Amino acid sequence: MKRRDAIRRMGYAAGFVVITPTILGILNSCTTEVAKWTPKFLMPEQAQFLIKLVNVFLPKTSLPSATDVNVPEFIDRYVDEIFTIEDQQIFKAAFSNTMTKISMHQGLEILDEVEDFQIKAFLDEHLMVKDEVDIEREANPDFKGKTTSEFLNTIKTMTIQAYLTNEKIGEDVLAYEPIPGAYYCGDLKSLTDGKSWSLD
In the chain, where are the structural domains located? Predict the structure, then answer.
């Protein structure tokens, strides 16, 4: 499936997410170049891993990558400004646990050295899809934190949400109408060439 088509399809899955003015404000203010970005919540090594991880989820093709539209900065600020203290602690613990696991999984002493193909191999093993069993959760159903699979799914969801809500993607990839109001009757293919409507 072509990347552009995949993004359109993701729009259907992510379209139910309510984007509040606060979240849009955070998203629109995330404009720092990746090389100059200083995280507010994450540790520097976590931020560097997040950059690699989101670019594995949404790499640069004919479309911008996740980092091209500041997804890591958004996730960092979202956790810092929106999550409760308890949720922040759970997120940070799950992040540290995931980084330790991928280091052990790939036999790396320094996580900075991890390559995209190694992250993909780790995701293949730990990222659960619908109806797959999370062995970690099954082994410890009363665990109050996030399992590795749950954490990775959280990052994936946040990445897709931030990407699809980004102004550049909204205007250049999805169907965009800056002054909505007219009512159109027809299927998506004939109205927008198959593009989902932008959330902006």
Answer: 3-192
- Indicate whether this model's pTM tops 0.90: no
Neighbours of 190 (CB within 10 A): 9
Phi then psi for 152, rounded to 5 degrees?
A: -65, -35
Distance from C-alpha of 30 to C-alpha of 75, rounded to nearest angstrom: 10
Angle between helices 71-81 and 44-57 (to 10 degrees): 120
Give the tens place of pLDDT for each residue, 93-119.
Answer: 999 999 999 888 888 777 778 899 999
Q: Which amino acid is at 38?
A: T
What CA–CA distance (Å, rounded) separates 32 from 179? 28
Tokens 């980092």: give the residue: 67
* Conformational region of residue 101, where left means phi above 0, alpha means psi within -120 to 50, and beta covers everything else: alpha
Measure the CA–CA gap between 79 and 86, rounded to whole angstroms. 11
